[in-house]
Amino acid sequence: MTDLVIRALTSSDAALFTTFQDSPFVGRAAFGQAYTSTADGGEYRPDWSWVALRGDTVIARAAWWGGPGDTEPVVLNWFDFADGEAEAGAELLRRAPFDKEYELIAPAGWRDDPAARAAVEERVAAATAAGMKPLVERYRYRWTPGCPLPGRTGRLTYRPEPDDEVILDVLRRVHASTLDAHARKAIEGPGGLEAAAREELEFFHWCPSPREWWQLAYTPDGEVAGLHVPAHNPSGPCVGFIGVVPEARGHGYGYDLLVECTNFLVEQGAEFVAGATDQGNAPMAAAFARAGYPITQEWVHLA
Question: Which SUPFAM superfamilies does the UniProt record give (predicted)?
C-alpha cells in the first residue's frame, strides 16, 4: 500500500481539499456550506487545512476555522475521510499541530436517520481514537422572518452596562450554578470560576458587534435578573449569551431575555438570528422552542 502522507495545504494547492467527495449526511457541506480557501477570498486558511494522501488521492481531510483577526484557529469544524480510512483520519488529527475542540455538525434528528447516524458515529470514533473526548451535544437554532417574532413580556427592564467589571460579576454569579458544559469545563480547570467568567467575556469582545449592545436585565424592584448579549459573530447575527443569576431563577426569565435579544437584533436589521444551547439545558431549550426558534442542526462537541 502507498505510504500515507499527511500535511497542511498551501495557497498554491488549496483546491486539493475539495477533490474529496463531500458527505451528503453530516458536516458543513451537508448544509450547503462549501470549503473556500482564503487564497481565493474564502474563510478557511490553507495552513489550517490538512489532508492525508495516498499517492495523489485525498483520503482524509480536516479544516480548522478561525475569525478574520485570529492568529490561531478557534475550532475544528470540518473533518471527514474515505470509506475504510478512519485510521488515516485519526492519524491526521494526531499529527496536526492544533489542540482545538471539534464541532461536528449534524442534521437535526440525526439519530433517526441510519446513514446520518453512521456518518456521525464514524467521525466521533475517529476523533476519539485520536485522543479527543465527547464533551456535549448542542441544539442549533435559526430564527428567520418566516417564524413568528415573539412579543416582549414587559416583566424586566434592560440597560446597557459599559463596565466590564460589572459584567464579570454577573457572569461569575451565572456560572456559579450553570448547566452549560463549556462553562463547567472551564470552571473545572485551573482558573476555576474566574477563568470561566473571563473566557465568556473574551468571547463577547471577540464578536465583531458593538460593545454597547450588551444589556443587563432588572426586575421591577431594581435587582439584577441577568444578562443578554445580542451579537454578530463572523457568520452573522446571533444570540451571544443568555444568563439568569441564581437568585432570579424559577420565573422563566431566560425566555424574557431571549425574546428581548431577538427583538433587539431584528430592530438592528437582522434577517436571521442564530442561537444554540446544550441539549441537557432543558430550561433554555424550552425557551427557544417557546420563542419560535426551530432546531436546524445538532452539533456534537469533542475536546
Answer: Acyl-CoA N-acyltransferases (Nat) (SSF55729)
Segment 119-123 long-range contacts (CB within 8 Å, at least 24 positions apart): 119/23, 119/25, 119/26, 119/27, 120/25, 120/26, 120/300, 122/86, 123/26, 123/27, 123/79, 123/80, 123/89
Identity of the residue numbered 198: R
d(CA 7, CA 91): 11
Helix, strand, or coil here: 151? coil
Q: What is the residue type of 211?
A: R
The alpha carbons of the chain give a radius of gyration, in whole angstroms, of 21
Phi and psi torsions of 215, nearest 5°: -135, 135
Collapsing DSSP to helix, strand or coil, 207 comes out as coil
What is the chain's percent helix, strand, coil content, to nearest 5? 35, 30, 35
262: Cα within 13 Å, side-chain hemisphere: 29
Q: How confident is the model at residue 2 (pLDDT cuts 50, 70, 90)?
A: confident
Q: CB–CB of 222/214 below 8 Å?
A: no
Q: How far is CA 241 from CA 45, 111, 176, 220, in A?
A: 28, 28, 16, 22
Query: In angstroms, rounded to a whole number, what is the distance separating the alpha carbons of residues 74 and 169?
Result: 26
Task: Read off the pLDDT of residues 6-20 as tens digits, 9 standing for 90 and up.
Answer: 999 999 999 999 999
End-to-end CA distance of the chain: 32
**Per-residue pLDDT at 1:** 62
Question: Does 67 have pLDDT greater than 80?
Answer: yes
Centroid of chain to Cα 28: 13
Using CA atoms, how far apart are residues 57 and 217, in angstroms rounded to an integer? 55
Q: What is the pTM of this model?
A: 0.96
Q: Which residues of 118-144 are buried (b: 16+ CB within 10 A; e: fewer)?
A: ebbebbbebbeebebeebbbbbbbbbe
